[in-house]
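ingest -> validate -> predict -> emit
validate: passed (alphabet ok, no gaps, 71 aa)
predict: started
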Amino acid sequence: MIVKKLHDAGLKSEHAYLAAVGSIGLSLASWLTSSRNESLERADRWGIFVGEWAPTFFALGLALANFEEPE
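emit:
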């Protein structure tokens, strides 16, 4: 139901896939930045926290792909 509403709102699977790839880059960037400014344990937490977004966005992209018409 939520995925259908997102699809009807104009969100496409490509958007979710781009967000997933972006979150992988953001995870690396947040880890690097945090490791320079804070302790390594805190940097690891930031990297893992942001890194958990990627699978969610990939799953959302797959779900949205089911609602898109084949080209």
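The mean pLDDT is 87.
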